[in-house]
């Protein structure tokens, strides 16, 4: 994985960008109202392709488990924070707390999926399986 | 109905993960096509679910339960070990979804 590592800062910038695109994707999918509104629908498609692209570029150098954890965390937190602003939705403190529990769970789960503990020989195999984690 | 739509969206999102893992950085055409098609289906059914769910709530349930499915499939089909850390993540996510439902958000 580190054989062609170019610039870590650039990969991380790309990962943060992918997280931002994912927030845009979530909001646009919501705004499309079942893909009945053209502008939001087109924006959703564009964000879908952008997030897939940026994430795949970032994951060339960043550990897959960490990359997914950061990406999923940014996407879910961003959507939770911005959707009340964009769509005039309301969330009680209790609901926000449960939402935080879910997001913490998914970040934890992605981090737990790292093949770190595997011996070097098995690491490449589990790396491949990690790829099935997009 | 929104739970049915969300469930279908989650199944397609798991399919996205499995096919993207085989798309070899999107150089393999067949799996890249499978990734895009299942992504389109996941997105469509998510948008139907979000007609009812709050966007932040529906999105979080969608992405996290898909994550649970991916981890469980990894253990069932690909022989990945299900260690206590993964199990804890799964329990926390499911607990959070149930909590959200009971609190009336979902």
UniProtKB/TrEMBL annotation, chain A:
<feature type="transmembrane region" description="Helical">
    <location>
        <begin position="66"/>
        <end position="87"/>
    </location>
</feature>
<comment type="similarity">
    <text>Belongs to the drug/metabolite transporter (DMT) superfamily. Small multidrug resistance (SMR) (TC 2.A.7.1) family.</text>
</comment>
<keyword id="KW-0472">Membrane</keyword>
<feature type="transmembrane region" description="Helical">
    <location>
        <begin position="38"/>
        <end position="59"/>
    </location>
</feature>
<keyword id="KW-0813">Transport</keyword>
<dbReference type="InterPro" id="IPR000390">
    <property type="entry name" value="Small_drug/metabolite_transptr"/>
</dbReference>
<dbReference type="Pfam" id="PF00893">
    <property type="entry name" value="Multi_Drug_Res"/>
</dbReference>
<dbReference type="InterPro" id="IPR045324">
    <property type="entry name" value="Small_multidrug_res"/>
</dbReference>
<dbReference type="GO" id="GO:0005886">
    <property type="term" value="C:plasma membrane"/>
</dbReference>
<dbReference type="InterPro" id="IPR037185">
    <property type="entry name" value="EmrE-like"/>
</dbReference>
<keyword id="KW-0812">Transmembrane</keyword>
<feature type="transmembrane region" description="Helical">
    <location>
        <begin position="12"/>
        <end position="32"/>
    </location>
</feature>
<dbReference type="GO" id="GO:0022857">
    <property type="term" value="F:transmembrane transporter activity"/>
</dbReference>
<keyword id="KW-1003">Cell membrane</keyword>
<protein>
    <submittedName>
        <fullName>QacE family quaternary ammonium compound efflux SMR transporter</fullName>
    </submittedName>
</protein>
<feature type="transmembrane region" description="Helical">
    <location>
        <begin position="93"/>
        <end position="111"/>
    </location>
</feature>
<keyword id="KW-1133">Transmembrane helix</keyword>
TrEMBL record, chain B:
<dbReference type="GO" id="GO:0005886">
    <property type="term" value="C:plasma membrane"/>
</dbReference>
<feature type="transmembrane region" description="Helical">
    <location>
        <begin position="59"/>
        <end position="78"/>
    </location>
</feature>
<keyword id="KW-1003">Cell membrane</keyword>
<dbReference type="InterPro" id="IPR037185">
    <property type="entry name" value="EmrE-like"/>
</dbReference>
<feature type="transmembrane region" description="Helical">
    <location>
        <begin position="6"/>
        <end position="23"/>
    </location>
</feature>
<protein>
    <submittedName>
        <fullName>QacE family quaternary ammonium compound efflux SMR transporter</fullName>
    </submittedName>
</protein>
<dbReference type="InterPro" id="IPR045324">
    <property type="entry name" value="Small_multidrug_res"/>
</dbReference>
<keyword id="KW-0813">Transport</keyword>
<dbReference type="InterPro" id="IPR000390">
    <property type="entry name" value="Small_drug/metabolite_transptr"/>
</dbReference>
<keyword id="KW-0472">Membrane</keyword>
<dbReference type="Pfam" id="PF00893">
    <property type="entry name" value="Multi_Drug_Res"/>
</dbReference>
<feature type="transmembrane region" description="Helical">
    <location>
        <begin position="87"/>
        <end position="105"/>
    </location>
</feature>
<comment type="similarity">
    <text>Belongs to the drug/metabolite transporter (DMT) superfamily. Small multidrug resistance (SMR) (TC 2.A.7.1) family.</text>
</comment>
<keyword id="KW-1133">Transmembrane helix</keyword>
<dbReference type="GO" id="GO:0022857">
    <property type="term" value="F:transmembrane transporter activity"/>
</dbReference>
<feature type="transmembrane region" description="Helical">
    <location>
        <begin position="35"/>
        <end position="53"/>
    </location>
</feature>
<keyword id="KW-0812">Transmembrane</keyword>
